[in-house]
Every structure is written in C-alpha cells, then in structure tokens.
Amino acid sequence: MYNLIDISSLHVDFHLEESIVPAINGIDLAVKREKILGIVGESGCGKSVLALSIMGLIPSPGKITNGKILFNHNNSEIDLTKIDSNSQLMRNIRGNKISMIFQEPMTSLNPVFNIGDQIIETIRLHQKVNYSVSKQRTLKILNEVGFPDPATRIFDYPHQLSGGMLQRVMIAMALVCKPLLLIADEPTTALDVTIQAQVLKLMNEIKLRFKTTIIFITHDLGVIAKMADEVAIMYVGKIVEHAPVNEIFSNPKHPYTIGLLQSMPTLNRQRNKPLSTIKGNVPNPGEIKSGCNFYPRCPKVMSRCKKEEPLLLNSSKNQKVSCFLYN
Description:
31% of the residues lie in helices and 24% in strands. The protein contains 11 helices and 12 strands.
C-alpha cells in the first residue's frame, strides 16, 4: 500500500523581530493510504504546525524553510511546499482533496451564517454545482454523520448548537467533498466523554465507508489506543518515535514515550500512590542549542545526549526511535 503523504526534512520557522523560532525541526514522516496515523505530544510540540504545513495555512510570520511534503495522487506527486498557499491549485487541493477539522468549532464557523449555507458554500466552491444539488449533498452528509433532523436544523446558527453537534457540522464540512486525507486536530478536546465516544466511533466509520486516510492529532494516548493504526510521538518539533499502535503500547522505546505512558491513570492503580510524571517542563523551541531536546528531562541521559542529536532510525522492523539507547 503506497503512501498518500511523504514528508521529508521538513523545517518550519517563525521569523520574529528579534529571533527565529524553529517550530518544526526536520521531520520525516510517511502517511499510509486508508490508515489512521495518530500524532501525540504535549502542548507546544508542533503538532498543529505540522498539520497547518500540510494544509498550506501556516500563519505569518511562520514559513516552511526546508523540506518536502509530497502528496501522491492520480499516479503523480505534488510537492505542497512549492505551491503558493493562495493559488488556485492549492485551493483545489485544500478542502477538496485534503480537509481539516479544527480544534475549536465555534471559532472555525462563521457566527453570522447558518450551518447549511456554510456547508453549501464549501460544495459550490469545490464541486461547481448549483444550489439545489449542493443543498441535497449537505442534507445527505449531515445525515451520514449523525446530525439530528438536518432538514430543519440546517437553518440553525452555530450558537444554537451544542459542542457535539458543532463538531459533527465540522466533520460534515470536511467530508462533503470526499477528501483523500482528513486531518483532525484534537477534535474531541472540548467535548464531554459521551460525545467524545460518539465522534471517535463516527471517524472510524468514516475511514471504512469513504476509504479516507486520517491524521489524528491529540495529546490523549487513550484516544490513540482506540483510533490509530500507527503512532508518531512528537517532542519540540521532532518525531522521537514512530511505530504501529500495538508496539507503542506494548514495547515503547523512547524515554519520552515511556514517560507519557506511565503518566496515564489506570483503574488498577493504588489509590494512595501518586501518578508518575515527567520531571521539568517542555523547553521553548530552539532553547536547547545542542544535543537531544529531551536530555534535561530524561531519566537515562548520557553525556553523549548533551552534545549530539540522535537520528530517527529503525530499532526493529516496524519501529523507529530517536535515542542513543538504540542507535
């Protein structure tokens, strides 16, 4: 099965008045077709910037300074880093072939237009069909994502809907053009547990029904265990471990991955025993000038870790890790 997205040596920097802040620092990543890739990491590690890089939506003053993002479609490769983000070609890809569900639906939807008109506009922009056809497709996709009574409620405005319903609208809008790749940036963070379970079930159904490839960005390893086929662990703009989901949970290699898993609460944990934590805080991008970004917090740090930067290399057939303990 071929890769839908191939990312190589990707660097994204934010050029501020007094400094250059590296948000993505040399990422290599393959996204397999019709699979769910989970991207996990603490806040500020660059997960959302990676997603926005694929979409061509990096906010100013950020820009891609090196690397490739190859989109493999119709037996051809398109390097998304070479396309102007405002060009017609990028508009045809964004929303049509690659869609994104953003973290906060209330800030992603226009408050002065009803939800039906916003989805219809998406269809008419990308599919070039008339209003009547667009409305029928809107009702169909809302029904498919489990939105209640779409024929009546398409006239509702965003403020009239609950968080779960808003998230379904965002999913419907992202899927209505049947994209090859769906990027979900923490789509369940603001939802209660019941609605979260419904959204996760819906996205698994979407993958099977539409043969959609999904990049699922989250900081919740419990969600990843349910959703992902493969997992990439990010730390300060780099991927430190990449493996099938069962390998990540049964045989984690990188000390950061191990720390994340140990900090998860479990049902059989002793009641009076405190949760395990990773000491220290995530450094600011570019703060550590040499060596491994994780060495100030690593329980297995060696002198080499402070001087050299480990590469992301195979530690086994299906598992890559960026750590001197293994390479």
